[in-house]
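**Archive record**
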Amino acid sequence: MPKRIAEQYANREPEEGDYVISSNGYKETLSIVSEGFVRDVADIGTERDLVHFIWYKMEKDNYFPSVWYCSDHGNLSLVRLYKHCYRFY
């Protein structure tokens, strides 16, 4: 990742309206940051279903916030959505 892009994403945290994919080690849950709290939106089966759900909701609302991943250890990472999957920046 080029240095200026890395600096752009360094030390960022989820903001109001951002999506958070969280994992407990075997299952992923989709949440949204609302009023400073993370609120559960849905339990989605597969990664593909999760990505499709997020894309559908973003296009329906015409609002494209950041998407984050919170591991079962509590580490936050910004992710990039692709057609059927997501990857870490």
Q: What stands out?
A: The mean pLDDT is 83. Residues 50-89 form one domain. The first helix runs from residue 3 to 9.
